[in-house]
Amino acid sequence: MFIQCIACREKYDEDEIIYSCRRCGDLLEVKYDYKVLKERLRESDWMSLPLSVWRYRDLMPVRDISEIVSLNEGGTGLHRCKRLGKLLGVKRLYVKNEGENPTGSFKDRGMTVGVTKAVEFGMKIVICASTGNTAASLAAYAAKAGLQCIVLIPSGKIAYGKLAQAMVYGAKVVQVRGNFDQALKIVLELSEKHRKVYLLNSINPFRIEGQKSLAYEICDQLNGEAPDKVIVPVGNAGNISAIWKGFSDFYQLNLISSLPQMIGIQAEGAAPIAQAVKEGINSILPVDRPETVATAIRIGAPLSWKKAMRAIRESKGTAETVTDREILEAQRMLARHEGLFVEPASASSIAGLRKLVDLGTVNKDETIVCVATGHGLKDPDIVMQTCRKPIEIEAKIGPISEYLGLSKPIAPTATL
Q1: 5 and 26 Cβ atoms separated by less than 8 Å
Q2: Residues ≥6 apart with Cβ < 8 Å to 390
Q3: Half-sphere exposure of 16 toward its Cβ, with a 13 Å CA cutoff?
Q4: Cα-atom radius of gyration of the chain, to the nearest Å?
Q5: Beta-carbon neighbour count of residue 332 at 10 Å?
Q6: H helix or E strand, kind and range, residue 4
Q7: Is this model's pTM higher than 0.70 or not?
Q8: Which helix (H) or strand (E) holds 399?
Q9: Region 355-374 average pLDDT
Q10: Domain count along the chain
Q11: What CATH number does the domain containing 303 carry?
C-alpha cells in the first residue's frame, strides 16, 4: 500500500502525513496491490462478519485493528422502493439510506477510518471545514477517541440539526465570515502550519477509504451483483469518487462481474461539476456564490472535482442538475411513498432520477441505487417552512371529526 498523486503519479509512503502532492499540488489516493488483497481476503473470515464498514477491514489502510475508533457505522439499509419506483417508472429502485449511520450521515464511514489514522499517527487535534455533516461526524469520532476537535463553518445558515451535534460532542466551532471554500482554505493552512493538527476533509486520502465501503455493502446486499446505475448527490465531490473506487476494488478482486455507471447530481445553484460534464470540458468553473436549499451540497469550488469527473467518465456515467423545487418535491415523494425521511441534499438523487427518467437516460428495466446521504432530522427547518402547518381545533370530537372528514357515518359492512 502507498499513496499516489492522481495527476503526476508521484508516490508517497503510507506513513507520510500529506494532503496534496508536493510535486504538482494535486489530489492523492491510496493504492493497493490487488494480489496481496486477494490473498488477504482468501485467509479472512470477512464474509461471516456483520454488514458494517469494518466487515471490510482487510481492504482498509489500518495496521492495528485493536486501535479502531468505531461507533458501529455502516450496515445501512438498501431499501427496495416499489411504490416510488412505480411512480417514477423504474422497476428496480433501491435507496441506500446513509441516515442510518451513528451521526445520521455517510460521513461516519470516512471518519471511522480517518480518526483511526489520526490515532495511529499520534495526533492530538483533528480539524475540518464543514457545512454541517462533516462537523457532526468528526466531532463524534474525536470524542470517542479522546481528541480535540476544531470545526470551521461558513457564514450564513447552517442546519441546526448538524451544528447542535458538533457542539454537544464538544467541538470548538468557529463561524468564518465567508463561504465553505474560504473556510476550507484556512483549515488547510492550519494543518500545514501545525503538524499535530490532522485535517479530515475529503482531501484526506484515508477518509475516502472508509467511504468506499458504501459500494462494498451495496454489492453484498444485492447478492454479489453491482447495480446498473448509482445516483449520488455531489457537493465537495469526495463521495462519488469513493463509491466508484469501492466498486472498482470489488471488480478487480473478482467479487462482482460488472461495474455500474456513476451519476452525480448537483443543485442548480452549485453545479460546477455537472456543467463541466454536460459541456464535455476537462475543468470546472467555480461558482463564487453557491446557493441552494440543500445546504450539504452548497459548495461552489469542490476540492475533489477531478476525482469525481474521473469516476463519472471511467464508469461511462453522467451528471445532472436539479432545482430547489425539484429537490423538495423529491424529499416529500420519498417520505410519503416509502417512509424514508432524508435531508434535502439526499433527496437530490431522487430528483435527479426523476429528471433522468424523463430524459430517457435511465431505462425502466435497470437496477438503480439512489444514495441518500443524510437523515431528514439533520435539517428539519425547511420541512416546517414548506409543509402545511398543523391546525388548532377545540378539544371536542365533533369539530375534529368534521375537520378530518369522519363526521359522516360509515355504512355497515355486509355480513354473510
Answers
A1: yes
A2: none
A3: 17
A4: 22
A5: 14
A6: strand 2-5
A7: yes
A8: helix 397-403
A9: 96
A10: 1
A11: 3.40.50.1100
Instruction: Evaluate whether residue 133 is within a structural domain.
Output: no
Show the cell assigned to 343: 435531508
User: Which residue reads 446486499 in cell numbers?
Assistant: 221
| 146 in a structural domain | no
Per the domain annotation, does 310 fall within a domain? yes
Q: Is 254 left (phi over 0), alpha (psi -120 to 50) or beta?
A: left
Task: Indicate the residue type of 379.
Answer: D
The four Cα atoms 350, 344, 246, 27 give a dihedral, to 10 degrees, of: 130
Q: How far is CA 150 from the centre of its chain?
A: 21
For the stretch 113-165, pLDDT in tens is 999 999 999 999 999 999 889 999 999 999 999 999 999 998 876 777 888 99
Distance CA 209, CA 68 (A): 14
Specify whether the backbone of 268 is left (phi greater than 0), alpha (psi in -120 to 50) or beta.
alpha
Element at 357 (helix H, strand E): helix 344-359
* 36 burial via Cβ count (<10 Å: 0-12, 13-18, 19+): exposed
Q: Is residue 301 part of a domain?
A: yes
Q: Which domain holds residue 244?
A: 78-104+208-384
